[in-house]
Design the sequence.
């Protein structure tokens, strides 16, 4: 359909760079927005049955013999939160008696594996890569969480948050049990899906536009010269560059897809994407309220190392 | 009797959206209510809220973590 639009309607020469770029743009935009819609909607349904209070209560009450990191990470996948909630969420979890490492597992996976990222991955890279990504996002959270827990970092919380925790009582809450029938939930879910899509679509379109330009104008194999599998520094460099940057998944994934199409190994590209989406300067600033600089440093450091490791792993297996 | 409406949030776009929506609903329906923004984390935590934005009416938490539809919001403010 995009072929038709660009080549027949606009009578553009298929050999022209601009034509190629436009073609890419239309085709990808439609495909991605459709997929996004489906995935966001599906997740929306799951989300409405998974209120965060239940998650917290579950995590704090159940002795899971090491599995709690995995569970926290999995919960991170299905529960969304606005990034400004990361501080209240952090405090809420720790206050509820959940160990620091488990909270970290949640914090790491949540921004990385969400419905938008999954929808985009499906559209841009296909099912296999998507599954691998989701799996690695969860493993990343689980492993970082357990490592961070081993390091016994509680003393590095800011005095401020320690006080907040001390003053707040550890309540046995009766959380709001929303016993709404599915039919009633549907309009709420629907609205949320539309809201998310409305917010994300501009970013997706910009990302695809940039991707489209690169697709049309950057020669194939361009990146291969600098970032090929043979370059052992590619993965760490890509990750470290990515960490301070922030973009949501919607904006960065189309760009990543073009990078891969132009010769960047998939593992390096994914590591880059995880660095951009998972860790960022804005997030560090938000977390400064509850973590001392040292703790933030350790947190970022551990996650970065795990991302670099996954990057190498992917390059190896894909 | 005047109601006290509190919007909990640290200032990100979603939280501002909720405040704007509350102001709109209050003025459109001429509700007798006072709107307060709670931005300090310590105060937000007092309501046991983990996901902002959140809505508190007369010290009762009515909603957390999302932006309601106007009609839904109106019901919460009236009840």
Sequence:
């Amino acid at each position: 359909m995009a072929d038709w639009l660009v080549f027949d309607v606009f009578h553009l020469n298929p050999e022209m760079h601009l034509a190629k770029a436009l073609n890419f743009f239309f085709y990808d935009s439609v495909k991605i927005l459709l997929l996004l819609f489906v995935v966001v909607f599906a997740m929306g349904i799951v989300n409405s049955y998974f209120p965060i209070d239940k998650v917290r209560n579950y995590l704090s009450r159940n002795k899971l013999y090491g599995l709690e990191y995995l569970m926290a990470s999995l919960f991170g996948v299905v529960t969304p939160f606005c990034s400004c909630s990361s501080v209240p969420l952090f405090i809420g979890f720790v206050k509820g008696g959940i160990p620091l490492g488990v909270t970290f597992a949640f914090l790491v996976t949540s921004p990385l594996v969400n419905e938008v990222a999954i929808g985009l991955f499906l559209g841009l890279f296909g099912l296999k890569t998507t599954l691998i990504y989701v799996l690695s996002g969860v493993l990343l959270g689980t492993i970082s969480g357990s490592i961070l827990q081993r390091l016994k970092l509680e003393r590095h919380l800011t005095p401020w948050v320690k006080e907040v925790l001390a003053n707040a009582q550890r309540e046995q809450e009766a959380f709001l049990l929303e016993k709404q029938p599915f039919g009633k939930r549907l309009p709420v879910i629907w609205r949320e899906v539309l809201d998310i899509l409305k917010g994300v679509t501009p970013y997706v379109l910009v990302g695809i536009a940039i991707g489209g330009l690169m697709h049309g104008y950057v020669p194939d194999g361009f990146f291969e010269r600098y970032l090929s599998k043979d370059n052992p520094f590619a993965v760490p460099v890509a990750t470290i560059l990515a960490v301070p940057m922030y973009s949501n998944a919607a904006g960065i994934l189309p760009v990543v897809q073009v990078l891969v199409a132009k010769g960047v190994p998939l593992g390096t590209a994914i590591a880059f994407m995880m660095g951009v989406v998972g860790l960022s300067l804005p997030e560090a600033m938000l977390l400064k309220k509850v973590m001392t600089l040292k703790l933030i440093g350790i947190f970022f450091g551990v996650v970065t190392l795990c991302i670099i490791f996954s990057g190498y792993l992917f390059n190896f297996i894909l | 009797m005047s109601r006290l409406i509190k919007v909990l949030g640290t200032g990100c776009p979603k939280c501002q959206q909720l405040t704007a929506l509350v102001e709109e609903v209050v003025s459109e329906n001429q509700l007798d209510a006072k709107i307060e923004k709670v931005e300090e984390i310590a105060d937000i935590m007092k309501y046991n809220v983990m996901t902002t934005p959140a809505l508190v009416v007369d010290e009762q938490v009515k909603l957390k973590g999302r932006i309601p539809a106007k009609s839904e919001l109106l019901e919460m403010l009236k009840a």
User: Anything to note?
Assistant: The CA atoms of residues 47 and 79 of chain A lie 6 Å apart.
